[in-house]
Amino acid sequence: MTTNFKSAVISISIPSLLGFLFLKFDVADLLAKTTASWRSSPVLKPSAATNIISETCNQSFRAIFNTGNDDPFHNVSLVLHRNGESISCGETGTASSFSSEVLRSFASEFGNDCPSEITKYQVESLLTLSFSNLIDSCYREGQKKKGFLGFCDAGPEKTPILLDRNDLVPVRPSADVSSLPCRFHTREGLRVTEMEQLTELAKVTQPQCEMTSDGGKNYGECKVIEDDSIPSEIHLYAVPAGRVFMFAPSYVGEIFHLPHVPGADKKTIYLKVLSLNPRVFDVFNFFSREESQELVEKAIAEKSETHRIKRSSTGATGYNVNSRRTSESGFDTHGKTATKVKKRCFAALGFDEYWESHGDGLQILRYNVTTAYNSHLDWIADNSELEHDFESSGTGGNRFATILMYMSDLGPEDGGETVFPKGWPYDVAESDRLDKKAALAALRDSERGNVLKEGSWEEDLVATCRSRLAVRPHSSRAVLFYSQLPDGTADQFSLHGACPVLNGTKYAANLWVWNTPRQGYTGSPIKEKFRGDKEKQGLSSPTMAYKKIKANFKNGGTDESMKSAKLYFQDQFWGELGFNDPPLSVNTYEGHVWNVMVDGKVVETWQISEKRGSYQEFSV
């Protein structure tokens, strides 16, 4: 079991997973007609019958779930949700046969040669097969006949190819049917990668979080409420193959407590729902004021033409200045603090691995008085001749989530908010909402409004900011919102803008996270009209999968010039690689370039090649 999970098990839903295994009957009696040996091919499929289950297999099964003779899932119901949906689509009930289904699937595939450990991909296949046999109400709209397997596998035209595609273990409920499995997450985003996690989840109700008074600042503390009772339900969220987890809020003010994600100063990260449509969250303890200051200072000191702060640009191709984006911005792609924040972002979004290719560099933003960015989508609407396929509702990749980080304190009348023109204020009663016309009149009567030209787009944007959903900046505040719906369709309600600063200076940063590798990286999806040539060259294509390679980087401690070496993924700082630093192990892919730098200069470069095998070592 992973350390992160032990530190905080979250509220999901898996009932009597092992009930039938640990009751008084013999496993062989239960599985007499369904057991068989595990094939070398990683596909779950029907198998021949046998009457004997060895004691070794029994022991292995117990080891996988890490439990004794008592059934930890007694009187617990498994409740299943489709990704991003707060309303469940089905449940097993407390008297379900879910335990026996999982056991039957396991024994029928492994037979008497049962391992004591299985991979997270085998876990997901076993759970997918078991749910498909027990719940017939979790299906895609209009596809009831395909059932749960049809939800997990949307077909080749609607399933993006992620970097771990080759690791997936397809489900084959019958000889002529094969389906890709779902992933399963807790409500709080923790990916279920081990059966032992299910045992832990069934033992005790998970701690919840209640907001304390915030003194009117809208960023109070969250008090953890412990509960040692046995849960009656465990909720799981099924994510189709090729898709990414998304939180499923049910009401404004709802709290998502993420004790599995260490935040700033080792505090627990938690989310508070600000809006359901668009899906917007306050993110507490995401980064500290010290980290904020470090990011700003590095951005100001940056001299590189490609990374220094300068007039912001827009679009997917090159440097294009937009008259309605007057802010300044730069990128921090390899700084220690930026790297730490990016990894934290991925963990908070439900990734159990950090994939550099799924995120842009950290964009550092500066807004002086009157500067702003008119309302726009972070999702890129592409009409260019770029090879990258941006259509995320199919097999393409685009920005799916944004985390905004504020690094300045601005007062109620200072402007600089982030506005969502299609959302409503979370802290204003419907009867007290201000219409845009009244907001504009109040602005023109105020002292702060004098800095804007009457009739300008900036003035109009401020009126929108004061009548619609707006988030006011304060140092170390962070906000999450989604640019896609769970099926990859662009969320038009995620339209947002940066309100003009009316007093002072605003510093902020944002990280865009993609649902696939972004353009320029191995595995990025290619438009159909470019696929033929790319496949002939062995390059990126949505019809190709990529083999994960385990790389280990170490310092031999013999070359004095390498005493303070640092490892970089391209120009992205990865970790210290000096004499006294431990080896760095990473998951990487064909074509990835890793650099060793000393005093800011590249002294060693390695390019990953599949020809060298699935495990590769590099030393300086």
The largest pleated sheet is described as:
9 strands, antiparallel
Low-confidence blocks of residues = 1-51, 313-322
| Gyration radius from CA atoms, angstroms | 26 Å
Physical arrangement of strands within the biggest beta sheet = 9-10-11-19-16-21-14-13-12
Q: Which outline best applies? A: globular
Strand segment tally? 28
Tell me the distance between the termini: 33 Å
Strand content: 15-25%
Mean pLDDT equals 82
Determine the fraction of residues in helical runs and give it as a percent range.
Answer: 10-25%
Return the structural class.
alpha+beta
Number of separate helices: 12
Walk me through the topology.
Elements lengths: L2 H5 L19 H5 L23 H11 L11 E6 L7 E2 L6 H13 L9 H15 L12 H6 L18 E4 L2 E3 L3 E3 L9 H9 L4 E4 L10 E4 L7 E7 L15 E8 L5 E8 L4 E5 L4 H13 L8 E2 L16 E5 L3 H13 L13 E6 L5 E4 L22 E8 L11 E3 L15 H10 L11 H9 L3 E3 L6 E5 L13 E3 L7 E9 L13 H10 L11 E6 L11 E4 L2 E5 L7 E5 L4 E6 L2 E7 L7 E5 L1
Parallel strand pairs: 1-8, 22-28
Antiparallel strand pairs: 1-2, 3-4, 5-8, 6-7, 9-10, 10-11, 11-19, 12-13, 13-14, 14-21, 15-20, 16-19, 16-21, 17-18, 17-20, 22-25, 23-24, 23-26, 26-27
Helix pairs in contact: 4-5, 10-11
Tell me briefly what this model is:
This protein is α+β, with helices and mostly antiparallel strands and 620 residues long. The protein has twelve helices and 28 strands.
